[in-house]
Every structure is written in C-alpha cells, then in structure tokens.
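Appendix C: a fully annotated inverse folding record. The material below is reproduced so that readers can follow the format used throughout the book. The structure is listed first as tokens, followed by the designed sequence.
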C-alpha cells in the first residue's frame, strides 16, 4: 500500500536532475511469469460516469481514474512520497519561490505523434486557467501561477504571484495532466470525447452510459516498456452487487468502489485480491454550513458532534476497512493533526448546549426557536457515498432525533447534488475532495473557497469565514520553512476542529478488487488512481 509520504515546502534543491532510475521508480515491477500481450482487461467502475473525459474540465475523481490511463503529469511521486521527474526531467526554483523553470524529458510524443515541447505545456496551463474551460480542481491548484512561458523548446517558466509551497504537489495530479495542443484545439465537446495524451493507452471510443474503450499507445515512451495489455474496456456498472458478481464470474477483472462486506469476504480468497489506495488530502467528513440557519451557531454545531456516536457504526458497517478519523486530513498526510477529545460522545452535554442556544423541545420532540423547527437539510450524492456510508448517515439522523434535531436526508444523483450545493440549499454535506498535500486545507477552509470556480463549484462547503484562519492558511502556502509550515497547518486544523465546522469520519474509501489472474497490480499515482500500464494476464 502506497502511504503517500511527502516532502514539505517548496524549498527544493536548486536543481533536481532527472534520470532513468528516477523514471523507472514510478513503474510497476514486471511480472515474473510469462504474460499475454494481446489481452483486454475489463474494468468495472461504480463511480458516476464522467460527463467529460478531459480532467481539465471540472475535475472530479471519476475523471482522474480514467485519465490516469492515457494522460501524464509533469512530475510524479515515488513510493517514499518524494516528487520525481516524469514529463519534466528537472526543475529549478528562484530563492524567493516566485519563478520555476521546468526542463522537459527528451523524445516524448503524444499519442497523435506530435512531440511534447514547452509550447504544449504552456497551452495546457492556459487551458486550465481559461474560464471557458470551466475547470475547478486544476483551476484552484494553479491559482498562484500568473504566467507560463516557453523559454525555449524544452523549458517552461512559471511565474507566480505568490510563493506556492504546494506547487509540485499540484503538478503531480491528473487534473493538471498534459494534453496534445492539437486535441485542445478541437471543440470542447470533441476533446471531452477523447483527450490526447502521452500515457500508456489512448481513447478509442466512448459509448455513453456503457463503456470507454482504450488501446495500447504505439508512441508510449515515458514508462518502463510498452504496456502488456492490448486494450482496456472501462465499463460503468453503478450497482455494487452486479460489479462483484461480474468479477467473480470472470466477466470483468477489476472493480472499484468495493463494498466493505465483499472486501472482507475476499480476504481469504486467492481468486480475488484487494488493493487499498487511500486518497491524500482531505478526510471523509460531514461539513456544517456555518453561513445560515441553526448551524451558524457554534453551540448547535458542537451539540450535533457531541450528541452522536459514529464509532459503533463505522465498526459494524465497514468490517474493519475504515478507521475513525479525528483530523481534517487523510491519514496518509504527515501533517495531519487529531484532537479526539473534542469528539467524546455526551448526549447530556449536547442537550445542554442546545438549551443554552435557545432551542427548546417541541410537542413532537423536535426543538424549536422563534417559531422555527431545528431542522437540517442533508443532500447525499448516491454516486459518491457507498451504501455503508449512507447507512451511517441514517444512524446519525436517528441519534440526532433523540437530541431534538430533525435531519432530512435527500439522496441525489451527482448533478442534482451539485445543484443543491450551488443554491446553498443544504445544512450538512459530505463532499469528498482529493488534493495532494496539506494545502487542501486552504482549498476547503479559506474564505476564498466560498467563491465558485469557473465550473460553478466551490470547495468551502462549511463556508468558514475567519480572517485569522485565512492568515494561517495563506502563510502556510507561502513559506518554504518546513517547521513553520507544519506549525501553521497544525494551528489551522485546531481552529477548524475546535470551531466544530466538520465531523471527521474516516479516510476517503478507495478500495479495488481484482482477479488473481492479473499480475503487476499495485502501482498507483499521487491521488490513489491505479495505473494499469504495468498490468498483465499471467500465462
């Protein structure tokens, strides 16, 4: 399991030289058994089918899963969490952190046969930053890049408006992958259908609401040898029972969104194997909309956190596949800070807080204040919350009722869920967000995150608006001093936890099950996407 340990700060050595050794460190180990090179792997995804295969557009996790197979980034991350060369073979940074120079790897071609050069990288940065692209994840990650210039054919210069200690973390993500300028020159609809990259595979076709077909890239040079697989059929099967049945029957060889009970059942089997790839960045959590209604009062937020016990539900519903978190950050983040005592369950203390806040029990048991019921809206994305998690939310709903809080859970498809958030029509929300490194805290909790990106998506769903917190997150994002950075992020996390803006649950669940007939499974990228370039069928 890749633990995603990371280097801190932007004060990297003045020159980081690429080498063949560094490149091969990111490649899967070649299987020792004979392999077939004409096979098709069938992958079944339970995530929502992307509306666009170009991860520059929007920027969600299902896009990254697919894009990781045909697009690549400037930098990669090895198993020790160190950022290493990939499409860029080396880079330098100025002492003030405002100028970065990236030298590109030699002799790399896009799958359309055109060469990778500095102008192509500049075009990609401009594409992500163009409001018409409607990027969210990539757009926010490049917020400090004020200009990109092709200094020469193989060197890209990035000028920053402020130092960015998370720049390498951001550039390792699929949402900032490099695409062929010829592909970007097409209409957005056409590029969404089949982006052109430098990765191990190419997009052959996309049959909406069914599958995407990928084939081996004849121009692939950046990995260790050409892919063993001839093709990948990427199917969309939202029903978890259907996915696992297809895996067991051999109709598919790999599935995502594996459910806790099936993971536990497969533990003793040689026929089905398990890959656990925790995502970096944020922990899975319930965020409290502090900008409106009852949850604008910290006492109500604390009462809800203190009055419900999620530990028992996590234990029984997740079969040991999830561990309770008390931090805003994933367990794979070295700078994660926990404060478990804030989440001790005490229903009597919770009821006292609600009394102090002026909410008194009504005739039906639901508390009231100034003629209003203590009622909270909780839209849930059925595409992003697995059934076990939805059951946990229902347990929270029932426990909150005992406190006199009515929670209305509304299951929604992904587009309807986004619409509810955009209209600020929610009090509680569980919104996964994946970003490499602790800078995800700035994305999620700086007041600037209340303003929507060009896609219309905004990341600060708790709508935290604290100048002191903004200052901590801004300084952490700018400092090159590792000790100072760690201290600032710890203070920021304490502020978020002690203000009861979130209820941390567990790491973002990222479990994959695959056939025991596959070899070379286990390589993942910086955000936990399995990379299939080294996978083969044994025999």
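Designed amino acids, in order:
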């Amino acid at each position: 399991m890749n633990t995603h340990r990371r280097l801190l700060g932007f004060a990297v050595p003045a020159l980081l030289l690429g080498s063949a050794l560094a490149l091969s460190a990111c490649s899967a180990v070649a299987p020792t058994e004979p392999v077939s090179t004409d096979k098709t792997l069938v992958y079944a995804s339970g995530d929502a089918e992307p509306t666009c295969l170009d991860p520059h557009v929007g920027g969600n996790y299902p896009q990254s899963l697919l894009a990781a197979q045909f697009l690549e980034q400037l930098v990669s991350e090895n198993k020790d969490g160190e950022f290493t060369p990939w499409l860029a073979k080396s880079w330098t940074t100025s002492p003030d952190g405002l100028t970065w120079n990236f030298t590109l790897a030699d002799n790399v071609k896009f799958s359309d046969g055109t060469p990778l050069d500095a102008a192509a990288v500049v075009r990609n940065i401009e594409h992500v930053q163009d409001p018409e692209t409607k990027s969210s994840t990539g757009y926010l990650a490049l917020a400090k890049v004020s200009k990109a210039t092709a200094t020469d054919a193989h060197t890209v210069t990035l000028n920053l408006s402020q130092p960015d200690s998370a720049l390498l973390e951001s550039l390792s993500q699929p949402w900032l992958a490099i695409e062929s300028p010829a592909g970007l020159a097409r209409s957005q609809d056409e590029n969404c259908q089949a982006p052109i990259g430098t990765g191990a595979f190419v997009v052959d076709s996309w049959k909406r609401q069914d599958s995407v077909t990928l084939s081996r890239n004849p121009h692939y040079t950046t990995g260790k040898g050409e892919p063993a697989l001839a093709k990948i059929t990427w199917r969309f099967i939202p029903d978890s029972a259907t996915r696992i049945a297809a895996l067991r029957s051999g109709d598919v060889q790999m599935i995502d969104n594996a459910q806790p009970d099936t993971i536990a059942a497969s533990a003793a089997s040689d026929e089905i194997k398990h890959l656990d790839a925790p995502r970096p960045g944020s922990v899975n959590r319930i965020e409290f909309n502090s900008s409106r209604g009852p949850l604008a009062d910290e006492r109500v937020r604390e009462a809800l956190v203190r009055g419900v016990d999620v530990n028992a539900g996590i234990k029984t519903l997740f079969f040991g596949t999830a561990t309770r978190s008390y931090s805003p950050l994933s367990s794979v983040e070295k700078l994660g800070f926990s404060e478990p005592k804030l989440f001790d369950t005490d229903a009597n203390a919770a009821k006292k807080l609600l009394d102090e806040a002026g909410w008194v029990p009504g005739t039906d048991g639901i508390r009231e204040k100034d003629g209003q019921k203590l009622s909270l809206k909780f839209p849930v994305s059925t595409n992003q919350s697995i059934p076990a998690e939805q059951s946990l939310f229902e347990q929270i709903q029932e426990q909150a009722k005992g406190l006199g809080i009515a929670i209305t859970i509304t299951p929604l498809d992904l587009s309807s869920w986004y619409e509810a958030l955009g209209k600020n029509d929610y009090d509680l929300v569980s919104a996964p967000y994946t970003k490499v490194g602790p800078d995800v805290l700035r994305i999620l909790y700086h007041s600037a995150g209340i303003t929507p990106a060009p896609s219309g998506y905004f990341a600060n769903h708790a709508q935290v608006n604290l100048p002191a917190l903004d200052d901590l997150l801004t300084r952490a994002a700018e400092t090159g001093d590792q000790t100072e950075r760690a201290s600032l992020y710890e203070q920021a996390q304490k502020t978020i936890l002690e203000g009861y803006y979130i209820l941390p649950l567990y790491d973002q669940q990222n479990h994959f099950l695959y056939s025991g007939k596959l070899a070379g499974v286990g390589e993942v990228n910086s955000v936990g996407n399995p990379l299939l370039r080294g996978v083969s069928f044994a025999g």
